[in-house]
């Protein structure tokens, strides 16, 4: 319930603060006094988009703040889902800055308008003659039926099942679409994969192949070069090894004369040892070199295949080709295994569908049981409100497809008079009749669920006399378990309030301002007397006012 509403710098309001209480509060005031301004400020607090033109002084900040006692509403889950800090005593603040920007806060934490709107529907329910159009909505009608059918927990269960079913259905559709696309590529991917497999990439060493190719392709030059080197190293008269041995012999004659000669001898001896080892290695290589035209062709073919594959796939190494081969294999396996995977998911989907259908069936059965009770209560309330011949007809059919609240299709027909055919509400019910139906609906709902604060904005338009009196009694009865605020022009309803607020205009320093006042018992008598007889208060009007209040 709303406990405090404070408004600064909005429309004709300079700065007001009003305390609100549980039970029935009536708000009265002359036409144009500013009752709609109060509702406009409240709408901003509940998430309506801001309009900078509604700010009283554009150079100052407009602030609207409401304090709400929310413990009884069980809103912890709503707060969690919207990432809001929960408090039993929640404060919502809306600011419109001089720049035109708007900010909103819940318990001093910044929030978006969508978060504010989501929370707002659980706090305040505003009804005017325009809002009665929601009565013609099937979803609203189903909400009424579900309240009487005590379907809240089953609706939550169905909601989870339906979301899981819908998510899996979408996943299967996506997989089937992917399969169709992948199947088109399967033949080409299979060809590419086969090409890479036949190349034998895992056993291929590109560097070794290139070296082998160069060796086989230059056999004659290699043999000639190695023979020349061997000749230069080992020729009897001028070979490098023989020359070094002669140098070693010459140094051997003087090696004992000094340590430096000894070092020179050791060094040339090491050179001779290295030369001899080098000679053996070159000799082995020379013996190994052998022309092999067939092997040259084989190596060349492997390299050409490798180069073509690298060019085709825009890579430079064998390892990259191997990775591509593995990726292609994965794609091919994926397509081949997709059917099996889809089949498994479709079996899961069947289970989810059957579960949702079972819950939807329970919802349907509960609704069928609740419809006669709803019909009886609505017609009883409307009879009290001056429509003794009002009749409702509810038809509940089962559709073949899932809907947001089950598989039911609800059709509601109405007539206010005997002998007239029943028709849809929006076609056959007048504005005054829609107002009475809405009040009846809310009165029924108040018995079965915890409703948010309800504000009736002149919902009593078009009624008078004893009907107005009964309407006031119904509101009074509803307010025993909830907070109800009624903006009214009828003294019969104004008198029913436990609390009475008057909206009026006042000129302050040649500036018109809207003000609010909580009326005392004596002030209520005068206000209601004026509602009965006009600005000139007579003894008869006062007597009538006291009678209504008592």
From TrEMBL:
Belongs to the RecN family. NCBIfam families: recN. Keywords: ATP-binding, DNA damage, DNA repair, Nucleotide-binding. One of its GO terms (cellular component) is bacterial nucleoid. May be involved in recombinational repair of damaged DNA. This is DNA repair protein RecN. Gene3D superfamilies: P-loop containing nucleotide triphosphate hydrolases. Residues 2-507 form the RecF/RecN/SMC N-terminal domain. GO terms for molecular function: ATP binding. SUPFAM superfamilies: P-loop containing nucleoside triphosphate hydrolases. Pfam families: SMC_N (PF02463). GO terms for biological process: DNA recombination; DNA repair; SOS response.
């Amino acid at each position: 319930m709303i406990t405090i509403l404070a408004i600064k710098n909005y429309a004709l309001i300079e700065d007001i603060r009003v305390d609100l209480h549980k039970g029935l509060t009536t708000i009265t005031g002359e036409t144009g006094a500013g009752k709609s301004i109060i509702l406009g400020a409240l709408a901003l607090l509940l998430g309506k988009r801001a309009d900078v033109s509604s700010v009283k002084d554009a150079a100052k900040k407009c602030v609207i703040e409401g304090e709400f006692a929310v413990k009884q509403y069980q809103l912890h889950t709503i707060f969690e889902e919207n990432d809001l800090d929960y408090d039993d005593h929640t404060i919502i603040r809306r600011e419109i800055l001089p720049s035109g920007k708007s900010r909103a806060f819940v318990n001093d934490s910044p929030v978006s308008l969508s978060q504010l709107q989501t929370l707002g529907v659980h706090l305040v329910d505003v009804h005017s003659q325009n809002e009665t159009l929601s009565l013609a909505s099937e979803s609203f009608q189903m909400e009424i039926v579900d309240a009487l059918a005590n379907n809240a927990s089953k609706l939550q269960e169905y909601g989870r099942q339906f979301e899981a079913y819908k998510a899996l259905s979408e996943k299967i559709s996506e997989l089937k679409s992917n399969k169709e696309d992948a199947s088109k590529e399967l033949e080409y991917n299979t060809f590419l994969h086969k090409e890479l497999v036949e190349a034998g990439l895992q056993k291929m060493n590109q560097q070794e192949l290139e070296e082998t190719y160069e060796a086989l392709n230059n056999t004659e030059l290699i043999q000639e070069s190695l023979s020349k080197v061997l000749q230069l190293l080992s020729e009897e008269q001028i070979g490098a090894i023989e020359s070094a041995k002669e140098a070693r012999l010459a140094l051997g004659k003087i090696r004992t004369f000094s340590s430096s000669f000894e070092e020179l001898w050791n060094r040339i001896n090491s050179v001779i040892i290295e030369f001899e080892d080098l000679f053996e290695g070159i000799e082995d290589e020379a013996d190994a070199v052998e022309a092999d035209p067939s092997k040259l062709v084989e190596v060349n073919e492997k390299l050409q295949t490798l180069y073509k594959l690298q060019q085709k796939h825009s890579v430079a190494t064998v390892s990259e080709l191997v990775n591509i081969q593995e990726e292609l294999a994965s794609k091919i396996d994926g397509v081949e295994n997709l059917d099996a995977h889809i089949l498994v998911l479709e079996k899961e989907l069947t289970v989810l569908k059957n579960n949702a259908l079972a819950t939807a069936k329970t919802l349907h059965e509960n609704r069928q049981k609740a419809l006669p009770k709803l019909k009886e209560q609505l017609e009883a309330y409307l009879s009290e409100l001056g429509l003794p011949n009002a009749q409702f007809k509810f038809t509940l059919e089962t559709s073949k497809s899932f809907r947001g609240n089950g598989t039911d299709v609800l059709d509601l027909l109405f007539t206010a008079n005997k002998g007239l055919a029943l028709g849809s509400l929006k076609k056959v019910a007048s504005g005054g009749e829609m107002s009475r139906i809405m009040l009846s609906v809310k009165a029924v709902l108040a018995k079965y669920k915890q409703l948010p604060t309800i504000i009736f904005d002149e919902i009593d338009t078009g009624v008078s006399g004893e009907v107005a009196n009964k309407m006031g009694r119904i509101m009074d009865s509803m307010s025993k378990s909830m907070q109800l605020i009624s903006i009214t022009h009828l003294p019969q309803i104004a008198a029913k309030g436990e609390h009475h607020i008057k909206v009026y205009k006042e000129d302050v320093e040649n500036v018109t301002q809207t003000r609010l006042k909580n009326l005392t018992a004596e002030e209520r008598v005068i206000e209601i007397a004026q509602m009965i007889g006009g600005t000139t208060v007579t003894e008869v009007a006062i007597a009538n006012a006291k009678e209504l209040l008592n």
